[in-house]
Amino acid sequence: MSPYPLLLFLVLGASAFVVKEQLPDERFLGSTDASFGQFPAAAYIVSPERQICGATVLNENHVLTLAQCVLNGTHNTINPRLVRVHAGVLNLGLVSASRQTRLGDVIYVHPNFKAHSLENDIAVIRVQEPFIFPSNEVEPALRRTRIVANGHSCLLAGWGAIVAGPVQDVNALQRYMALTINDRDMCSSLRREMPVFENMICAGNMDNAPNGPAPCQGSLGSGLYCDGDLTGLLSFGINCGSLGNPPTFTQIRFYNQWIEQQFLRNDRPPPGFSPLDVA
């Protein structure tokens, strides 16, 4: 069985305002509808392996996502040309003039990604055609470079259902929720089988009431923004409001240099490349 969290399967209609949820109990609880231009770097990717995964626009030619979002069940990189990147989207069910859709061209997965612990869970996708800037709906993210203090309030932006239950309609509108940065050691003590390493950041419900504000599987890869800067990508601890499994993010400030290096690469990893094969 794949170690990756299950992803939300969305059935999109050209004129639908809601999207039916296919997997049980997946939601984006305690969130608020986003407005146009509020999170202009937020995007999502769709592929044969991963029906939907969060992504973030980095510049005209690249988006950032999780390594687990671009690997198949045997940890091999999926064909980038089968990946669609959607940016400028507020409502998943509507095709609007603001939407910019691009096909993937090259995928660069962090060479030290570890599937068992989800360390270095990060990847860069180069798209075939550049995004159009400037745009009120699509802009590159500002990336966090400094540490975020415990107790700081940040915003997680993504898509998902807004009520609990085994089968619910997913609100197709982009939504956001406030999450508070937690002490890393305290998060690790709650979940010893999946510790929170230094290059991760833990935020959200550790002691909230069940079904409080919390992301679920449909939020995998969504961006955490602190003071407007992209600070993390949701990697695990997608807890649907349960206790003892706080949301945990790949912490962007540890990867800024690696991200910049990917912009300059001219090589194309071989088909089916696996970061687990790298010594």
TrEMBL record:
Residue ranges of domain Peptidase S1 in the record: 28-264
UniProt keyword Electron transport, yes or no: no
UniProt-listed Gene3D superfamilies: Trypsin-like serine proteases
InterPro entries: Peptidase_S1_PA, Peptidase_S1_PA_chymotrypsin, Peptidase_S1A, Ser/Thr_Proteases_Immune/Dev, Trypsin_dom
Keywords recorded for this protein, A-Z: Disulfide bond, Glycoprotein, Signal
PROSITE patterns: TRYPSIN_DOM (PS50240)
One Pfam family in the UniProt entry: Trypsin
Leader sequence residues: 1-16
Family: Belongs to the peptidase S1 family. CLIP subfamily.
Name under which the protein is recorded: Peptidase S1 domain-containing protein
